[in-house]
Design goal:
Elements lengths: L1 H8 L5 H33 L11 H6 L3
Length: 67
C-alpha cells in the first residue's frame, strides 16, 4: 500500500500502476487472512477435543478386556 500512496502523492499518478499496487496489496492481505483463518480453525479443533480423547483405550486394550 505504501507504493500506492507514493503514486497518489506524485504530481501525475499513473492509474495503471496504482491499480496494480492496490491489487497486489489486496491479494497479500487476503492470503494472510486465509492463512490465519486456517490456523485458527485447526487450533479451535484441537482445543475443542475432549481431554478424555487421549485416554480412550486402544483396540488391543478393548479386545484384551483391559479397558
Amino acid at each position: 500500500l505504501s507504493r500506492a500512496v507514493e503514486e497518489l502523492d506524485s504530481e501525475s499518478p499513473d492509474l495503471n500502476s496504482l491499480r496494480k499496487n492496490i491489487q497486489y496489496a489486496a491479494a497479500v492481505l487476503e492470503s494472510v487472512y486465509i492463512n490465519d483463518c486456517r490456523k485458527n480453525s485447526i487450533l479451535n479443533a484441537m482445543n475443542s477435543m475432549s481431554p478424555d480423547d487421549d485416554e480412550r483405550p486402544t483396540t488391543g486394550e478393548r479386545v484384551l478386556g483391559n479397558a
